[in-house]
Design goal:
This protein is mainly β. Helix content is about 0%, strand content about 15%. The radius of gyration is 17 Å and the shape is elongated. The protein binds zinc ion (ZN). It comes from Streptomyces millisiae.
């Protein structure tokens, strides 16, 4: 499974007109605001899963 992260919206203008950039792996170009950006995977969060969404309130 190749590492591929496809953004749905441009992080700068929020447009959906994104296309893969030729700048390299994980690079995308936004046709709306003419910006190029890169997505990179930083790693897994060590304590990211300890924060649950359910509230266990007793009383
Ligand atoms: Zn944009």
């Amino acid at each position: 499974m190749s590492e591929r992260a496809a953004p749905f919206y441009c992080p700068y203008c929020g447009d959906e007109d994104l296309r893969p950039s030729e700048a390299g792996h994980g690079a995308w170009e936004c046709a709306a605001c003419n910006r190029a950006f890169r997505l990179s995977f930083l790693g897994l969060l060590a304590s990211g899963l300890t924060r649950g969404d359910r509230d266990d309130h007793d009383g």
